[in-house]
Structure formats: C-alpha cells, structure tokens
C-alpha cells in the first residue's frame, strides 16, 4: 500500500466520522504526516469528488470569510473506505508475518 493510498484511506476514514471541511482535514493529516504537501491532500480530495467517493458542498463561514467547503462520504466512498481498510490490514499483517513492526 503506497503513501497516496494511505492518505486516501485517512481522508475517507475522517469523513466516515462525519462531514468535514477541507482545512480541518488538512490540519488533522498534517499532524500525522507533516511532510505531505497541502496541494497533495487537496489533489486527493478533488480526485475523490471526481470519482464520486465524496461530495463537496458550501457551508458556514470562517470568521466572516468565504464559505467553507465541506466534504462528505457517498455510498461509493464508504465502499472505497472499506476496500482500502481491508488492503491496509492485509499489508499490516503481511509485514507483521515478516517480523516488521
């Protein structure tokens, strides 16, 4: 499982917990993957929307600024999340079988 897939899994996992706005997703991922470029995360979010795994909508404002862009998981996104989670668990188990912790 490559890093892009892991980032996608993380984004889908966060959205599985409820609708999230873009900056919050970025902030939470940066806390775990500080070396990942902001543009890479937004590129994955755009790809997920294009593929129908997520939907984007406008909501609320941040401190009087422009409306926030929220993301929510679709049914296809829930399926993608499940598939990526199973792939991750398989990779984790395979590494553990080799003694890689």
- Form type: globular
Cα distance spanning the termini: 16 Å
Please identify the structural class as seen in this structure. Answer: alpha+beta
Q: Which sequence of strands runs across the widest sheet?
A: 1-3-2
Low-confidence stretches: none
Helix content: 55-70%
Estimated share of beta-strand residues: 15-25%
User: How do the helices and strands follow one another from N- to C-terminus?
Assistant: HEHHEEH
Tally of individual helices: 4
Mean pLDDT value? 92
How many strands in all? 3
Q: Give the biggest sheet.
A: 3 strands, antiparallel
Query: Radius of gyration, rounded?
Result: 15 Å
Write a brief caption for the model.
This protein is α+β, with helices and mostly antiparallel strands.
Describe the structure.
It is a single chain. The protein has 101 residues and is of the alpha+beta class. Helix content is 60%, strand content 17%. The chain is built from 4 helices and 3 strands, in the order H-E-H-H-E-E-H. The chain has helices at 3-16, 22-32, 38-50, 75-97; strands spanning 20-21, 54-61, 67-73. Strands 1-3-2 form a 3-stranded antiparallel beta sheet. The longest helix is centred in the last third of the chain and has 23 residues, at 75-97. The model has no long low-confidence stretch (mean pLDDT 92).
Annotation keywords:
101 residues; alpha+beta; three-stranded antiparallel β-sheet; 4 helices; 3 strands
Topology:
Elements: H1 3-16, E1 20-21, H2 22-32, H3 38-50, E2 54-61, E3 67-73, H4 75-97
Antiparallel strand pairs: 1-3, 2-3
